[in-house]
Specification:
Layout: H1 2-26, H2 56-68, H3 98-106, H4 112-116, H5 120-128, H6 136-139, H7 142-150, H8 154-161
Transmembrane segments: 6-26
Keywords: Membrane, Transmembrane, Transmembrane helix
Protein name: Helix-hairpin-helix domain-containing protein
Length: 164
Amino acid sequence: MEFVGIYWPVFLVALIIGAIVGYLVFRPRQRVTLTSETPLRPHMAAQPLKREGRGIADEAAAAASDVTGQLISAKVHQELPGATGTPDDLVKLKGVGPKLAAELANRGIVRFDQIARMTPAQVEALDNSLGAFRGRFSRDRIVEQADYLSRGDVDGYELKFGKL
């Protein structure tokens, strides 16, 4: 009994620590159930994909153009059904002014989706050939901007790049 009388504060601290640890270990946890029926905001709604061709020959031609690209200067993408459309206002992209937009139009680039689907190698080759506008594509992240606008995600664009 003398032992308990001397060390009662230590037993009290041990009891309090034990109660805290017991609560943390055995407390009820939140149950989370994942479903596929999550609500979407309007700007996240599925957009219909713009596809170039409908047949296997069109897809093969697009693949050949992607692979050979600059080597043989094939412009197969421009000849496929669905590859043409109304030109977009490229000046909406930050870093693209009227002169750069005209230069891109001279090269056949007139829509956001054309810029958005460019490969890094294509972007680098285009960027190196732009003369006074060299470096603008990477510095102003024009491909990323075009990706947002080609999908119609204006809210996402404005969140990342500012007002349109």
